[in-house]
């Protein structure tokens, strides 16, 4: 079928199209980081609200499960009539999906704060705001970081579906190569780029999390943090 | 927004359902065939492997790593890569790609389900003279069933959802409706496709919740009722 050579890996393709690849990568990073940032800002109050009562946590978690069940292509299709073929369409969808992961992990993190620690802080005269900022949030941080890592990695993968509205970051390379007579070099470049980007962002967030929680590296506390991380990744 | 009205009109036109070639019914059957084959293939690989790893307690790090890597690889990338291999684009490539993504959730949940079985129960089963096989299938499996079924349900919903992406690389399935709609700048058709796909995904979820309820041994209370009773 292929008369011309069509190698899987072609360094000259990457060199010749460096500017294009860089532009798509920039869009990919921009969409991912924005989606997770906005998701985090919305998820925190939702998690705090859901923790308040069982009446609220039921609907919040149920709604997030429903959102997660809707296929990404359908999600972008639902949003597109309102925002058109723009980056906003992709961003709104990505935020909704990241919310599902983030709210669950944030809630689990807040609920994992030991009750006696909260009690002790109250006994020391901590008000509600100070209790949250100085005691609960730091203790829930490992769980938060685990949630943000999962959300980031799955968002990087999801951005590619944005190709349906022409805003799919590295996904543009993948589908573009497919449409250009099954040109393999851009397909592989886009696919590998996605995986590398996901692992890179994951490592950066993990590092930030480590820096932000020095106490989890103390010998006695180390295992608790690690357990929270694996529990998050299994969810 | 008139898109929703147009979507209702689109779904109300019987010809859009029965049209040969790319009518909703034809695409639905295609979608279900691909999804069913992919889930079946994944179960064939992941269930025995998960049961074996869980029973012996080996490979915990492997299953966790597999599910993490699986999350980082975009489905669309794998679908496209398979489409340009000698397998070619079509139902086979889509099925294999989807099956690969269905393996991690089944494997991880089966493994965790088996590991979470109370060690005392396993010991008691052994002490009663059960062989390794009997312990696996008559003590561990029934107790691990809720988690195993969670894995199967996650995999099935995910496969039904991602099968829509096949349309982006010239595959079949319900994603075609959405893709064609975008191609024709017809937002009514786009939203109509989204509704059909979303309803199918939610239905799949519901069917598997029911299935896992039927397959889980013990008192048969509906999941939601059980919780309500526990609080009462």
From TrEMBL, chain A:
Keywords: Membrane, Transmembrane, Transmembrane helix, Transport. Belongs to the binding-protein-dependent transport system permease family. It comes from Klenkia marina. Its main location: membrane. It holds the Pfam family BPD_transp_1. GO terms for cellular component: plasma membrane. The keyword Lipoprotein does not apply. It is found in: Cell membrane; Membrane. The keyword Transmembrane applies. It is a multi-pass membrane protein. GO terms for biological process: glycine betaine transport; transmembrane transport. SUPFAM superfamilies: MetI-like (SSF161098). This is Osmoprotectant transport system permease protein. The chain crosses the membrane at residues 28-48, 60-82, 94-118, 139-165, 185-213. Gene3D superfamilies: MetI-like (1.10.3720.10). Residues 25-205 form the ABC transmembrane type-1 domain.
Automatic annotation (TrEMBL), chain B:
One of its GO terms (cellular component) is plasma membrane. It holds the Pfam family BPD_transp_1. The keyword Transmembrane applies. It is a multi-pass membrane protein. The chain crosses the membrane at residues 34-55, 76-103, 155-178, 190-215. GO terms for biological process: glycine betaine transport; transmembrane transport. It comes from the Bacteria. It is found in: Cell membrane; Membrane. Keywords: Membrane, Transmembrane, Transmembrane helix, Transport. Residues 28-208 form the ABC transmembrane type-1 domain. PANTHER family: GLYCINE BETAINE/L-PROLINE TRANSPORT SYSTEM PERMEASE PROTEIN PROW, POSSIBLE OSMOPROTECTANT (GLYCINE BETAINE_CARNITINE_CHOLINE_L-PROLINE) TRANSPORT INTEGRAL MEMBRANE PROTEIN ABC TRANSPORTER PROZ. Belongs to the binding-protein-dependent transport system permease family. This is Osmoprotectant transport system permease protein. The lineage of its organism: Bacteria, Bacillati, Actinomycetota, Actinomycetes, Geodermatophilales.
């Amino acid at each position: 079928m292929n008369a011309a050579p069509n190698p899987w890996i072609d360094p000259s393709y990457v060199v010749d199209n460096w500017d294009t690849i860089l532009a798509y990568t920039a869009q990919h990073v921009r969409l991912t980081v924005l989606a997770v940032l906005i998701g985090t800002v919305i998820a925190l109050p939702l998690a705090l609200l859901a923790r308040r009562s069982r009446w609220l946590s039921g609907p919040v978690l149920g709604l997030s499960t429903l959102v997660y069940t809707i296929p990404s292509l359908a999600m972008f299709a639902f949003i597109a009539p309102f925002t058109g073929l723009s980056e906003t369409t992709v961003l709104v969808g990505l935020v909704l999906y990241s919310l599902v992961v983030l709210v669950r992990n944030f809630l689990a993190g807040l609920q994992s704060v030991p009750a006696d620690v909260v009690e002790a802080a109250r006994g020391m005269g901590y008000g509600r705001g100070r209790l949250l900022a100085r005691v609960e949030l730091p203790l829930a941080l490992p769980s938060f970081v685990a949630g943000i890592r999962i959300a980031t990695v799955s968002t990087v993968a999801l951005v590619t579906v944005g190709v349906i509205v022409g805003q799919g970051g590295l996904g543009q390379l993948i589908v573009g190569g497919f449409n250009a007579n099954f040109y393999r070099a851009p397909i592989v470049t886009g696919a590998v780029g996605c995986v590398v980007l996901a692992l890179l962002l994951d490592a950066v967030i993990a590092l930030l999390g480590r820096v932000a929680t020095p106490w989890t590296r103390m010998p006695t506390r180390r295992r608790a943090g690690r357990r929270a991380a694996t529990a998050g990744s299994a969810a | 927004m008139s898109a929703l009205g147009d979507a209702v009109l689109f779904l109300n036109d019987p010809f859009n359902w029965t049209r040969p070639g790319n009518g909703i019914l034809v695409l639905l059957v295609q979608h279900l065939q691909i999804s069913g084959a992919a889930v079946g293939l994944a179960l064939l690989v992941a269930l025995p492997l998960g049961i074996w790893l869980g029973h012996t307690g080996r490979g915990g790090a492997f299953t966790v790593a597999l599910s993490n890597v699986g999350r980082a690889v975009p489905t669309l990338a794998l679908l496209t890569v398979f489409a340009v291999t000698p397998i070619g684009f079509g139902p086979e490539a889509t099925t294999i790609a989807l099956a690969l993504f269905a393996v991690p959730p089944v494997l991880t949940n089966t493994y965790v389900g088996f590991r979470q079985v109370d060690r005392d129960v396993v010991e008691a089963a052994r002490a009663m003279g059960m062989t390794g096989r009997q312990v696996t299938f008559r003590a561990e499996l029934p107790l691990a069933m809720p988690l195993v079924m969670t894995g199967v349900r996650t995999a099935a919903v995910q496969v039904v959802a991602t099968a829509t992406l096949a349309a982006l690389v010239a595959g079949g399935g319900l994603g075609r409706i959405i893709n064609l709609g975008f191609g024709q700048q017809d937002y009514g058709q786009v939203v109509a496709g989204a509704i059909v796909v979303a309803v199918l995904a939610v239905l799949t979820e519901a069917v598997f919740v029911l299935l896992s309820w039927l397959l889980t041994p013990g008192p048969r209370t509906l999941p939601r009722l059980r919780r309500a009773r526990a609080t009462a």
